[in-house]
Amino acid sequence: MKRYFVLFCFLIGGFASAQVLNPGDGVRIMFYNIPEKITGDYFLQNDSTVQLPYIGSIVTANRTYESIKNEIFKKYDSLYKDPELTIQPLYKINILGEIKTPGYYYITGYEKLAGIFAMAGGETSDADVENTYIIRDNKEIKLGKGGTIANGNTIGEYGLESGDRIFVPHKWWVGARNTAVIISGAAVLVTLVGILLKK
Question: Does 92-173 carry CATH code 3.40.1190.20?
Answer without folding.
Answer: no
